[in-house]
Amino acid sequence: MSRLTLLVAFALLAFAVPIGPSAAQILDPSVHKLERLTPLQLGSEENPASMEPREYKLKVGKGYRWKIQASDLNEYALVAPDFFRNIWIRKIEVGGVEIKSATLDEVEFEDGGEAELFFVAVRPGTFEFGPKGMMERGVVGKFIIDSAGGN
Known about the structure:
By secondary structure, the protein is of the alpha+beta class. The protein has four helices and twelve strands, in the order αααββββββαββββββ.
């Protein structure tokens, strides 16, 4: 085997190591048929520090739509850095505007409102989310992303 053949073989192997969803998963038509998640509600008339639901179960390689709604009772900054870095964000819609971004750090609502995140779960794991400043007081949710094969 020539030195060039070995270099090409090693290069091909390097690109074959999965670091996210496979090409087959991304091209899978089910990724484009997005599952609507239960909308996240930040704050309520009874309790401005409430957040519901607090748990989402997802599958790697599957596409989702997640609406985030914030009451106007408080200022909310939803943070989920580990989650945001382990999904493929297709777009974010806010007030009729589409935002295309590779990642984000937080979604802030100053006077209430809503945003919708369109994404594909890329890596398995458990990732926390919640309103900045309220997580320390127990207002914490989690995304549980299971591998496509499931258990």
